[in-house]
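User:
Can I borrow your eye for a moment on a structure tokenisation matter? Would you put together a sequence-and-structure record for a protein of your own picking? Please set it down just below, with no commentary around it:
AI:
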Amino acid sequence: MLYSEFAKIMTSHRMNRYLVASTGDSRKALTLYRKNLLISQELFTIVGCFEIALRNAIDEHYLDILGNDWLRSAATVGGIFDEVDTILTKDTINEGLRKLRRNYTHPKLVAELGFGFWRFMFAPHQYARAGQTLLQIFPSKPKSTRATQYNNNYIFNELAKIYKIRNRIAHHEPICFTPLFPIKNTTYVRDNYGAILQLFQWMNIDEHALLYGLDHVVAVCNDIDRM
């Protein structure tokens, strides 16, 4: 397909940053657009595996501490999230329960709740209400130093970065540029990819074995860099 036809479908506004990053070479711009789709697909797969591993680790931790229906119990009157500063967490759980209705099981509710919900388990109020023990799911996390506190806030902020790029991919926004500029750059992808692998390692998960045959992020980044 010619660039003009492609841009008509995808809109010139959307394609312009690819054209600028390709110094006006329309053929190169088309290739870069397709490479962005490919790296988005690759990274979204990694994020998806991480999201499932994270929510399962959080759930298993609280199952042992708070009981088999800990989520539903947490959102009841008098539950641990029945407080003003955790009301959105309570409401999110109850919305999941309303969607499931008679089909409720605890595993189904776990699957119903999104990345944003699980990220907020490390937010200050949620972390405190649930007993301040959740960092135990990262047994290989480094010890805090004066320079860096590897606490729940650190994890929350790392997850926020991953959540942001996840949403960019989900909303079909490009990830192959320097943020806010039409400059071809894979640093943004590589940094988030590295953060995910690090968190896997802190969870004592063999990320290479888990992602075997699925992980081509570095290879596609290299292809983009060589363009």
